[in-house]
């Protein structure tokens, strides 16, 4: 059985019903943070549904995704809390900045290097 979550400030709370979640979700701002570096977009959002499909451990309610200019999506990381999501987003953004700016690679090279360096995380 799915649990549905909404945000109260930066805190995820369980909804009492699917309808409560749907009504919240329709108008909610779910963006945690968004950055762009050399045409690479890094986006972290609140999902509203638990994406911890193993059902062991904390629910995974936030996700960071990396989008490359060629349309490919990089690996994702999922998190339990807003704070973890902000921290994870910063780690990924810093890694991209180092790869893209420090080495002056183009986006395809950055994507290749990140795929090697990033591991699937929460």
Descriptive notes:
It is a single chain. This protein has 122 residues and is of the alpha+beta class. Helix content is 34%, strand content 25%. The protein has one domain (30-117). The protein has three helices and six strands, in the order E-E-H-E-E-E-E-H-H. The strands form two sheets. A four-stranded antiparallel sheet has the order 3-4-5-6, covered by helices on one side. Helix 2 packs across helix 3 (107-117). It starts with a strand and ends in a 5-residue tail after the last helix.
What key attributes describe this structure?
two-stranded antiparallel sheet; 122 residues; alpha+beta; 34% helix
Q: What is Rg?
A: 16 Å
What is the tally of helical segments?
Answer: 3
| Termini gap | 21 Å
Structural class: alpha+beta
Give the fraction of residues assigned to helices: 25-40%
List the helices and strands and how they pair.
Elements: E1 5-8, E2 11-14, H1 18-27, E3 31-37, E4 40-46, E5 62-67, E6 77-79, H2 82-102, H3 107-117
Helix pairs in contact: 2-3
Summarize the structure.
It contains 3 helices and 6 strands; from the N terminus they run ββαββββαα. It has 122 residues and is of the alpha+beta class.
